[in-house]
Amino acid sequence: MPGITREEVAHLARLSRLELKDEELDHFAEQLDVIIGAFARVSDVADEDVPPTSHPLPLTNVMRADDVRPSLTPAQALSGAPAQEQQRFKVPQILGEE
Length: 98
What we know:
This protein is mostly helical. The protein contains three helices and two strands; from the N terminus they run H-H-H-E-E. The model has no long low-confidence stretch (mean pLDDT 87).
């Protein structure tokens, strides 16, 4: 299996909007090649009678009853806020949206 090329790493970097230097492209190409090789070895170990799994052991969700309990009032929750508006925390706008 051919290794990942620095051009492929550069393409992935562009898609990810990352600026990489030339030496970083070579370094990441080597690292990604090792990672891809490790995943390829898994298929060598897996046999036809081994079903694909996401976890080696079965998982069980432990759920508790959703009991209503007393909690803070909006005024209590906002009492330490530096700024508030309409019973909400007021924070600086970061996305440039209205």
